[in-house]
Amino acid sequence: MLRFAPSPTGSMHIGNLRVALLNFIVAQRLKLPLMLRIEDTDTQRNIAGKDEEIFKILKQMGVSWDQLVYQSANFATHLDYAKKLLDEGEAFYCHCTPEFLEARKQEAIQAKKPFRYEDGWALAEKESNPNPVVRLKGSAQDMEFNDLVKGTIRFKAAELDSFVIVRANQVPTYNFACAADDFTYQISHIIRGEDHISNTPKQILIKQALSRVLNTPQTPTIYAHLPIILNEDDGKKMSKRHEASSVQWLLKEGFLPASIANYLATMGYKAPKEIFSLSEALEWFELEKVSPSSAHFSLAYLRHLNHEHLKNLEPASLAKLLGIEPAKAPLARLFLEECSTLAELQEKLNAMFAPKDIAKDYEGQNFYDKCTTLYHALKAMPAVADFNAFKQEAMQRSQLKGKDFFKPLRILLTGQAHGVELALLYPHIVPFLEQILTLESAHGC
Ligand code: GLU
């Protein structure tokens, strides 16, 4: 079983979504179940409703899961495991106060030595501190694990000192809850961000100890830590400050889930083709081919992919996404010439169908008068299907020609001063002429 284990502590970042997506792809390819585990044990940082937001985004992206678990529901199991570890001598109570540990750290700094917790300190403060933490015994040996993306990763014994698994307030630590659940659900593949690499040796030690005390063989685990995503401005880690890092922002801007999935699957990956759907990726994606070096986010490239995906949509699907009647889809398709997102298309359509503000492009009274003249001429005309015939008739009735005719015409028909060729738009405008030819009440007569 695989798992995607988001914490409901903030909005979903594209880095998290990439982890979700790759877990889904690998689970599908290996025909293994995928668990969605909401890691909600940090009650201070949990934000109400974030779990629902995660479900919604994953569904929109086409990522499904077979089992849903809230980590907090396993709280009793975590404490039960901790008790067994204590009973079997794999873990011990540590009464050290923060002040005591801080003093030892200062000593290490003075002696220019790395700080390492010593098990012999555990009872030193027993009298003054009746609320101990529980520590799992560290490792006296160096450790290594093989990562499918990053290769072999080694840790020195000096870094693997005994560490806290249950805090003084009886709350399991993040590493303990996470590893305990991975053990319980026999997780076989752990795919997550590389910021978790330093947690891995601790989690391996926890699972090894659990396997011993519970007398249950450990499920062999394949690890894959995905490189972080860097932002395009300064090449630093893409943080929440970058709006494009928020999946919700991208969806709100009108990036299609299919393009976002396409983009995330190609980050640090040489895909066999540029434009593909998630179901296509299921046919060829291989986790071991993900590059170990960090990926750079490019909004321009995502826009390009989105443009291609929008072009490939059936008109009916495009209309549905834009919430417009199907007859307006040809207009949306034409606007694709100058747009790359649904929000930009929406803006063009809104400008076309909203009452026109002819003062917006006010170029003096003269221009305003031309717009008004043309507007009245067009209103009085019968509908003409052919653009050339329509032009002739409108020129004749308005007595305007050249730029004096075309610029007001474009504004009256599209609400914009520039854009797609009118000759291309016009045939699809005809059915809506009456709706399109309206002026803002301030200018209308
Ligand atoms: N809850 C962790 C996070 O959101 C993920 C833990 C894991 O995948 O092991 O970063």
Automatic annotation (TrEMBL):
<dbReference type="GO" id="GO:0000049">
    <property type="term" value="F:tRNA binding"/>
</dbReference>
<feature type="domain" description="Aminoacyl-tRNA synthetase class I anticodon-binding">
    <location>
        <begin position="313"/>
        <end position="422"/>
    </location>
</feature>
<keyword id="KW-0067">ATP-binding</keyword>
<dbReference type="GO" id="GO:0006424">
    <property type="term" value="P:glutamyl-tRNA aminoacylation"/>
</dbReference>
<comment type="similarity">
    <text>Belongs to the class-I aminoacyl-tRNA synthetase family. Glutamate--tRNA ligase type 1 subfamily.</text>
</comment>
<keyword id="KW-0030">Aminoacyl-tRNA synthetase</keyword>
<comment type="subunit">
    <text>Monomer.</text>
</comment>
<dbReference type="GO" id="GO:0005524">
    <property type="term" value="F:ATP binding"/>
</dbReference>
<dbReference type="InterPro" id="IPR020751">
    <property type="entry name" value="aa-tRNA-synth_I_codon-bd_sub2"/>
</dbReference>
<dbReference type="InterPro" id="IPR004527">
    <property type="entry name" value="Glu-tRNA-ligase_bac/mito"/>
</dbReference>
<dbReference type="GO" id="GO:0005829">
    <property type="term" value="C:cytosol"/>
</dbReference>
<comment type="function">
    <text>Catalyzes the attachment of glutamate to tRNA(Glu) in a two-step reaction: glutamate is first activated by ATP to form Glu-AMP and then transferred to the acceptor end of tRNA(Glu).</text>
</comment>
<keyword id="KW-0648">Protein biosynthesis</keyword>
<feature type="short sequence motif" description="'HIGH' region">
    <location>
        <begin position="6"/>
        <end position="16"/>
    </location>
</feature>
<dbReference type="InterPro" id="IPR001412">
    <property type="entry name" value="aa-tRNA-synth_I_CS"/>
</dbReference>
<dbReference type="InterPro" id="IPR045462">
    <property type="entry name" value="aa-tRNA-synth_I_cd-bd"/>
</dbReference>
<dbReference type="GO" id="GO:0004818">
    <property type="term" value="F:glutamate-tRNA ligase activity"/>
</dbReference>
<keyword id="KW-0547">Nucleotide-binding</keyword>
<feature type="short sequence motif" description="'KMSKS' region">
    <location>
        <begin position="237"/>
        <end position="241"/>
    </location>
</feature>
<feature type="binding site">
    <location>
        <position position="240"/>
    </location>
    <ligand>
        <name>ATP</name>
    </ligand>
</feature>
<keyword id="KW-0963">Cytoplasm</keyword>
<dbReference type="Pfam" id="PF00749">
    <property type="entry name" value="tRNA-synt_1c"/>
</dbReference>
<dbReference type="InterPro" id="IPR008925">
    <property type="entry name" value="aa_tRNA-synth_I_cd-bd_sf"/>
</dbReference>
<dbReference type="InterPro" id="IPR049940">
    <property type="entry name" value="GluQ/Sye"/>
</dbReference>
<dbReference type="InterPro" id="IPR020058">
    <property type="entry name" value="Glu/Gln-tRNA-synth_Ib_cat-dom"/>
</dbReference>
<protein>
    <recommendedName>
        <fullName>Glutamate--tRNA ligase</fullName>
        <ecNumber>6.1.1.17</ecNumber>
    </recommendedName>
</protein>
<dbReference type="InterPro" id="IPR000924">
    <property type="entry name" value="Glu/Gln-tRNA-synth"/>
</dbReference>
<keyword id="KW-0436">Ligase</keyword>
<feature type="domain" description="Glutamyl/glutaminyl-tRNA synthetase class Ib catalytic">
    <location>
        <begin position="3"/>
        <end position="302"/>
    </location>
</feature>
<dbReference type="Pfam" id="PF19269">
    <property type="entry name" value="Anticodon_2"/>
</dbReference>
<dbReference type="InterPro" id="IPR014729">
    <property type="entry name" value="Rossmann-like_a/b/a_fold"/>
</dbReference>
